[in-house]
Design goal:
Layout lengths: L3 E6 L3 H13 L3 E3 L3 E2 L7 E4 L2 E6 L4 H11 L5 E5 L3 H13 L3 E4 L5 H14 L3 E3 L5 H16 L8 E8 L4 E2 L2 E2 L3 H11 L12 E3 L2 H6 L11 E9 L6 E9 L2 H19 L6 E2 L1 H5 L9
Parallel strand pairs: 1-2, 1-6, 3-5, 6-7, 7-8, 8-15, 9-12
Antiparallel strand pairs: 4-5, 9-13, 10-11, 13-14
Helix pairs in contact: 1-8, 3-4, 5-6
Length: 291
């Protein structure tokens, strides 16, 4: 299979997990050096079996220019696993330099609109998803379809949604509700006319409770995403629900590889200025097997 040359933005947990997954499992992705990072106090980072140089925010433009010169004649791709504050700037930098990219960083609705405008203006396609798991994307799509087809079957049921993520998914000690949880409420539960609001989402970040009540293995406390949705009739005669369990970051890294494959396929077929999603990935019949 022809190689995909990829620039990596982000040397945090998810960026490292993606690079290590590529090292171990995907020979058709080539990681371009150096890696791009945020405001950190180190110049190199060890990932798996290799030490990588890192580029800090103030050096991004010069580094991208150098990479473009080195890779002249190659169609380049990138992945972004940085932060909500940094993602839009990285997206615009890539698009304006002809680099197609997969964005796994959660963005605000306004930033996604801006990114879409930039893609359309530059004619450079990208793929954005707040959750890179193909399994989660497939389940979400199935339930969205169900809500469209059977919008009244659960009308006026009372809903609950609990989610658990690593303790670092918080700001100033207050849990940051996952984008996936908000999407479950907005695109599934409410479309089934189930009674629930964003404010009723319960977020767990306490490791002791995650082990004792969520049965999360200790080795996954620093990287997991669990969601439990339930809805029941007010008279307690019926109850339904679903759950998603992601332990570790490998499922997201796998989905990122599949996303790069799908984006490259679409670009080579003539895609210009599109913003793809995980729906495009999970419906791709040509995806290679990924461990």
């Amino acid at each position: 299979m022809k190689q995909i040359s990829v620039v990596v933005f982000g040397t945090g947990n998810m960026g490292k997990a993606f690079v290590e997954y590529v090292q171990e499992n995907i020979g058709w992705i080539r990681i371009i050096e150096p890696l791009f990072t945020g405001a950190v106090d180190y110049d190199t980072v060890e990932i798996g079996n290799k030490t990588y140089q890192v580029v800090k925010p103030g050096e991004r433009e010069a580094a991208i220019k150098h990479i473009l010169e080195q890779e002249a004649g190659n169609t380049l791709y990138a992945v972004d696993f940085t932060s909500q504050e940094a993602a839009l700037g990285n997206i615009k930098l890539c698009l304006e330099n002809g680099i197609h990219l997969v964005v796994g960083t959660s963005m605000t609705g306004e930033d996604l609109v801006e990114a879409s405008k930039a893609a359309k203006r530059t004619g450079v396609s990208m793929l954005a998803a707040p959750n890179m798991s193909m399994g989660v994307a497939a389940m979400m799509r199935m339930f969205k379809w169900g809500a469209e087809q059977f919008p009244t079957v659960y009308a006026d049921f009372d809903g609950t949604l609990d989610e658990s993520h690593q303790a670092s998914k918080a700001k100033n000690g207050i849990p940051t509700v996952s984008a996936t949880a908000k999407t479950i409420v907005k695109d599934i539960l409410r479309k089934f006319r189930i009674n629930i609001t964003d404010e009723e989402i319960k977020s767990e970040r306490n490791p002791e409770i995650q082990v004792s009540k969520w049965n999360i293995l200790k080795k996954y406390l620093d990287g997991h995403g669990h969601h439990k949705a339930k809805w029941e009739k007010k008279d307690n005669t019926e109850a339904y629900g679903f759950f998603t369990i992601i332990n570790g970051r490998k499922p997201y890294a796998r989905g990122t590889g599949a996303s790069l494959f799908t984006l490259r396929e679409r670009v080579e077929a003539g895609s210009r200025g599109e913003v793809l999603s995980m729906d495009d990935v999970i419906s791709n019949p040509n995806l290679p097997s990924l461990p």
